[in-house]
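Posting here for the record, re: pyridoxal-5'-phosphate.
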Amino acid sequence: MQFIDLASQQTRIRRTIEERIRKVLDHGQYIMGPEVFELERTLAEYVSMPHALSCASGTDALLLALMALDVQPGDAVFTTPFTFMATAEVIALLRATPVFVDIDPVTFNIDPAKLAPALQAVESGDAANHPLPRGAVGWGLRARGVIPVDLFGLPADYEQINAIARSRKLFVIEDAAQSFGAKINGLKACALSELTCTSFFPAKPLGGYGDGGMCFTNDDELLDLMRSLRIHGQGEDKYENVRIGINGRLDTLQAAVLLAKFSIFEEEVQLRQEVAARYTQLLGELEVELIPPLVPSGALSAWAQYSVLARDEAHRAACLDRLRAAGIPSAIYYPKPLHLQRAFKDLDYREGDFPVSEDCARRIFSLPMHPYLKAEDQERICRTLKG
Ligand SMILES: *Cc1c(COP(=O)(O)O)cnc(C)c1O
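Prediction output follows.
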């Protein structure tokens, strides 16, 4: 049994993938070939956003977005501490300051009710009602924007977050690295704020055979800026450079693989719904003492992960031991919230600053999840968890 089974998917579409790759080998445009633009058009249409700009990874997508918004040292960008490193890393890379906001214990996404107090804390420099990065308070932080993350494939609460951001003229960048294919209130993930980012890392819902990412936006100006930043800040032609940028292009070969994979993507999103529903049903029927993930009404998760909560850390360790003994793979996303990572030690956050994230980090774990997971394997997993 595999945690994420990419081989079953490949067996289904191997010929399509090979045809797509052969076409690239024939035309030889390995950099910015026609598949890159075809993928941008195809995915922009899929998520109903006016513009898509492909890039080398989900991390680069976030970086390009922040660079286009001219994020500077002294800027505060609000995000969740319960996410993959890249979300906060790009903020710090630009010498801006990640200001963490704790999560909702049910959705694992940034808690919109805690965003307003966090904003007030930054604006007043007073951490009485929200823990600020002690190492950065003296800098006189300027609130610039929010990066909500659609963790495990479930969109964050953009209705509330966008409203708060609009009233304070803050940007919102949707980190949809795990949620491509998800929906909420009739809108697709990657269309939930004015500038959005996703990843095509192989293990993501739409994954390539290597790194890749994409930005989406409805803002023509931001699109032009990101297009320039993606290729060394280029101007009208290739050897005119008008700003400092990066080498952030998506390979043509990756675009070709992604186009082949996209041909069955919608069906895979549907299969993931069935796998997730079966887990939740089995855990209930067997009365396994674990809290299954809950999808709020109006939302559809892309189910990048199926993550459950154990009673406490010892209970989780016992569950993981049982799975290991039965040869069943599992994973912990995430064992340490970002505010406690050594990489951010200069911010001087402390244990206890974000208790919900810290509690989840101690209790959460993820079960094998992919569109081709068999019912009998799910039964074995759930029976093993029952003990
Ligand atoms: C995977 C991931 C990223 C980074 O994507 P890469 O393509 O690996 O660079 C960013 N944010 C989140 C939430 C992710 O899960």
